[in-house]
Write a structure and sequence with these properties.
- The complex is a heterodimer.
- By secondary structure, chain A is mainly alpha-helical.
- Chain A contains 14 helices and no strands.
- In chain A, α3 packs across α8 and α3 packs across α12.
- In chain A, about 45% of the residues are buried.
- Chain B is mainly α.
- Chain B has one domain.
- In chain B, a hairpin with a 2-residue loop joins β1 and β2.
- The radius of gyration of chain B is 20 Å and the shape is globular.
- Classes of the chains: A mainly alpha, B mainly alpha.
- At the A-B interface, α2 and α10 of A face α2 and α10 of B.
């Protein structure tokens, strides 16, 4: 046995940062690289505001001509709308890149995610940053704050907590659902239509009090598509309109908890389906 | 092919048409190849018909007319408008956007068919691919009585012609927005602004009837209303006459103006082409 005087070298690779830190580093890089195209930066923020603003304009014209919709006043509808849009902004700011799963899977970008020492889904979600999501968030907050001053709400500390929880939970509901749907990219190749459909459903029909859609509609938009959990259920509690609910009041108040639950489920399903990934060899 | 190409590289008219038809078919196939997408598209269109119907019925409540518009007309318009939007303004409309961003547009420019022709044919193809879902949606809407049948046979023909002209105008507008990619490289934002402006201004979300007078006047003067509002108002016109001919003529006028504008922009865009190496 040859004696060597080499001492044991401590691991030369530094310990990788934790998940949250990794996410933060990658996210910052993504934001930086997304503001390079200045012309597009402005248009992107305008575009996102326009996307949601059109819907707002639509409801505005509607309320201007019709007044009350299903017993909800203009201010109350605005609160519901603001709550949903802010939640949407939170969700897309943090997790919006799930919409490029098709792209990453079909063109083999996912190969690179698998090679690097960071969780592949984390890399997917930070592969770029959509600046337009700031537009959603800003517009949503603007409407929410305006609606809060207009709508008759008896604020208690508990309702403030519920509103904040609803914004975060609602964002997670949408993201969790969309990440779960993205998982089908590994099997089907294209999930764009499903995802855009769900997104449009949330945008176009999330702004109405659910009784508009009848009992069957309420059940469908609670069970089949968890739209009710995003804004409607918490909004009924905050606005004191729980009399029209088909579910117990405590259930409506606990709706934001569906967010973390759905995110966990969507994440797990995504990772499970990712086993079926077939590299296109790019 | 070589036999029909003369020394200047021109093709016979028959060949040119066959070539365009092939490009359109490719566009259609690029969408229809994803069968699940097609299925989901149909289901989502059906859902949309039902939900739009419910929203508008709830909005009208017990009232029969609002702002002089009868309940059936408003509901019917909203449903038909949603179907038009589903057929004409899919989210990802032009391939031009990605091609410019990735620099692959250089291959398109090198091809023996002009980029404008390639892009237009592709858009027409992808739009045609969404006709099945629009047709299924229309069938459901008629079955539910959400949309009243058209008044007369000639009005139905005028509606079909006007829809086609509207589609051409929509594609032209899309192309012009797509060409801005040559200046901004990344055109996603412009597309979003355009998409939404078109959705609102074309009257696909809400009929121009309900807009405040000043706004409605401005919107009627823009090409967007010629995409959707014009064909729909022909469908719902109770005493249609020469005004229908006037509406069709206006659409043709827009097509000529937009074709000219697109050509001018394209000539300038070609000089702005930036190719990312490699």
């Amino acid at each position: 046995m040859v004696e060597t005087d080499a001492t044991v070298v401590p691991a030369s690779r530094p310990v990788p940062p934790g998940w949250v830190h990794q996410w933060w580093i990658l996210m910052r890089t993504a934001v930086r690289s997304s503001i390079i195209y200045r012309g597009n930066l402005v248009l992107m923020i305008l575009g996102s505001a326009a996307l949601q603003g059109t819907q707002l304009l639509f409801i505005g014209v509607l309320l201007d001509r019709f007044g009350v919709i299903a017993g909800w006043s203009t201010a109350q509808i605005a609160f519901l709308y603001g709550l949903r849009l802010t939640a949407h902004g939170v969700g897309t700011c943090l997790f919006g890149q799930h919409q490029y799963t098709d792209f990453a899977v079909r063109l083999g970008e996912y190969d690179r995610f698998l090679l690097r020492p960071v969780h592949p889904l984390l890399q997917l979600l930070t592969r770029a940053f959509n600046l337009g999501t700031f537009g959603d968030l800003a517009l949503g907050l603007g409407i929410l704050v305006t609606a809060v001053t207009l709508a008759p709400i008896d604020w208690t500390p508990w309702l403030v907590v519920l509103t904040i929880a609803a914004v975060i939970g609602g964002g997670l509901v949408e993201s969790g659902l969309q990440i779960g749907l993205s998982a089908f990219s590994f099997r089907l190749g294209s999930t764009r239509n499903v995802k855009v459909t769900v997104d449009n459903m949330f945008t176009d029909f999330g702004a109405y009090p659910l009784p508009v859609f009848g009992t069957a509609g309420i059940v469908a938009l609670t069970v089949a598509l968890p739209l009710a959990f995003v804004a409607y259920l918490p909004a009924t509690v905050v606005l004191g309109k729980t009399a029209e609910l088909l579910v117990p009041v405590w259930f409506a108040a606990a709706a934001p908890l569906a967010g973390p639950l759905l995110l966990w489920a969507g994440w797990a399903f995504f990772m499970r389906q990712s086993r079926h990934y077939e590299s296109p060899g790019a | 092919m070589s036999a029909e190409v003369d020394l200047a590289g021109r093709r016979s008219i028959g060949e040119a048409l066959a070539l365009r038809a092939a490009l359109v078919r490719q566009g259609t196939r690029s969408v229809l190849v994803f069968r699940t997408d097609l299925f989901v598209g149909i289901v989502s269109t059906l859902l949309r018909v039902v939900l739009v119907l419910l929203v508008w019925q709830a909005v009208y409540g017990d009232r029969t007319t609002v702002s002089g518009i009868a309940r059936e007309d408003a509901v019917g318009y909203a449903v038909l408008g949603a179907l038009f939007a589903a057929a004409m303004q899919p989210f990802q409309f032009s391939s031009l956007r990605d091609r410019v961003r990735t620099g692959n547009v250089v291959f398109d420019i090198m091809r023996p068919v002009s980029l404008i022709t390639q892009s237009t044919a592709d858009q027409l193809g992808t739009t045609l691919a969404s006709i099945p879902k629009a047709a299924v949606g229309l069938a459901l809407a008629l079955a539910l009585g959400a949309v009243p049948g058209p008044s007369t046979a000639w009005q139905t023909v005028a509606f079909a012609v006007s829809s086609l002209l509207g589609l051409v105008i929509a594609i032209q507008c899309n192309l012009i927005v797509g060409l801005t990619a040559f200046w901004t490289t990344e055109v996603g934002g412009a597309y979003l602004v355009y998409n939404m402006a078109a959705a609102f201004c074309s009257g696909s979300l809400i009929p121009l009837w309900f807009m405040p007078d000043g706004l409605a006047g401005v919107l009627r003067a823009l090409p967007f209303s010629a995409q959707i509002f014009t064909p729909l108002s022909i469908w719902f016109d109770r005493d249609a006459g020469w005004n229908v001919v006037g509406a069709l003529a206006l659409q043709v006028g827009w097509i000529v103006v937009l074709a000219f504008a697109a050509h001018l922009i394209w000539l300038r865009a070609l000089r702005r082409t930036v190719i990312n190496g490699g």
